[in-house]
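Dock heme C; give full complex structure.
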Amino acid sequence: MHNKHITYFTIGTLMLLLAILHIPILKVSISPAEEPRKEKSIEEITDLLGTPDLDDIEYPDDEEPTAKQIELGKMLFYDRRLSKHKTMACVTCHNPDIGTGDGVAKGRGVEGGLVGRNSPHIYNLAWNKIFFWDGRAASLEEQALGPIQAEGEMNMLLEDVEKRIGAVAGYQKLFKEAYGDNAITSENIGKAIAAFERTLISDNSAFDRYIAGDESAMSEEAKHGMQLFVGKAACIECHSGPNFTDQSFHDLGMKSDDLGRGKIIKAKSMNKAFKTPGLRNVVFTAPYMHDGSLGSLEEVVQFYNRGGDRPTDNKLVKKLNLTPQEERALVAFLGALTDPVIVKRPEIPKD
Ligand code: HEC
Ligand code: HEC
């Protein structure tokens, strides 16, 4: 009798406890999965991403370059005289015919040695504020003089570049027209190359036409991928803004000994962090990542889906649980960011 009472009491208390606890438990653990994800509107996506605005480009000293300066920069970009043995130009590693890259995981410098990192694409850098995979250059002007002098790349002293270019009659005339008297300086070489690079703009992809109101510009699969990009797959956390980059540095958990940003700012928290690359024209820029270790967009998406290859403190890197169909949709969306930039090979002045 006594025992029975205790049993009833215990069961009653348990039921009561369950009644109190059950509801919140159910609410927390089950309902989010059942609730369908809300799709973002075109307005919301335009706010998060959008089309690059030419008026937002900040030119050095607020001065837009002239057509003559741009054309001169293009010649220098294509001119092998900028490298020690006249065998290599900027275009060797940043070829507009192959996505402004070189198509290989790591290229070779003028002396034949492998370059330490993948040649990045150079599209839409006009809006960019920080350069190189590790952010060690602050302007395109500064950046351009880097590879010319780098022993592992073009291996030239700036004074020798000035002498070599200065000896070409055609360039004497072109520099004068572009920058005035006594203008063949490494500073102006950097300026002209940067002026040309800022014209490598891709801004009329299917995605841009879609957000501008052309419903048929993107396939249903690409639209699905777009929703995943800004939703479930959370790519938008880093690939944000009209050029699909936050211009910041993240460790994605790649297997690589390269310390990246951490080596530049000597901060452990930035070890193995690299700059988020822009994604416009990304279908042309394989192989991918700072070490060129991922050969296709499918491989890149699979890498994100499995939450990287090495544990990292980065909370944004985690298993995404994308289905194969969702992986394909993301790749289709990346394909919708394509608007080729066609560059006609310039006539370079002869000796
Ligand atoms: C041998 C191949 C090679 C040559 C030649 C070369 N580059 Fe590069 N370029 C690279 C590599 C590799 C990187 C990335 C290096 C890094 O981040 O540490 C890079 C980075 C860049 C970047 C930075 C892109 C970004 O998103 O931050 C620009 C701009 C650039 N190069 C322009 C040039 C110009 C201009 C020239 C000629 C003066 C040139 N490059 C010559 C291989 C090359
Ligand atoms: C935590 C920030 C972050 C998130 C989230 C993120 N990315 Fe990235 N992405 C980066 C960084 C940083 C790199 C360069 C990494 C490296 O080279 O080590 C990169 C590289 C890439 C590349 C290679 C581009 C090239 O030119 O080499 C592609 C493509 C890409 N991401 C697509 C995506 C997609 C699709 C998603 C969503 C599934 C995504 N990213 C999510 C930061 C991020």
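Observed: The two ends are 113 Å apart (CA to CA).
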